[in-house]
Amino acid sequence: MNAAPRKDPVAVESEVREKIHLEILKRTGAYHANDHILLPSGQHTTEYIEKTLVTTEPSFTEGLGAVIAKHFAQWPVDVVLSTGPGALILSHCVARAHPSRPIVVYGTKGLTGGERRVSLPVEFQRLIRPGTRVLLVEDLVSTGSTLTLLINLVEQLGAEVVGIGCLWRRTSGDFNGKPVFSLVSRDFPTYSPNDCPLCRRGVPLNEEFVRRRAQRRPSTVKAAKSRDAGGR
Ligand SMILES: [Zn+2]
Description:
By secondary structure, the chain is α/β, with parallel strands linked by helices.
């Protein structure tokens, strides 16, 4: 008899789900795989996510937000706190689909004396009070340092972090024991150019993403001179 080890059905189901979510992200053009990519750090990798493209398809974003909301539906949530303006569209979709009908706010990131910090815009500060139940939402979790800072901020205000929902989690790190739900949990190895297996095999290096970052200049339109300002 063939006694191939059988996989745990729960693990299989989450594997299938993850594949579907990856496929959705691929269709937005945000996820690149099976490539040989130069990262801004100078490292090489096989996979890449363009964060700014993740939420360009409204129906996909709504669908993915609903999956996160469904996971946290059993917990009452007063506020969905986006880690920054970048994750705000996803946060909106999560809040819209959560049965508690939470409000949505966002944190801001910055540097003070070379140290990373997060804060809440003044207008939002009164919305997170002692006892407020907060769901944190992030698009891509790499090191998780922003999330850790935000958890501390929420707890300093006397509020409670219900959990963390994200699209993509690259780290398996722990966030003070808070429940984390991610649509895709996947880290990809990065290599220094000297011991990159793709370089060794002679696979051409894709420098597109680094070049694009170097050229990144927002398109601007100058305000019209007064001649046009008053209309006709
Ligand atoms: Zn390489």
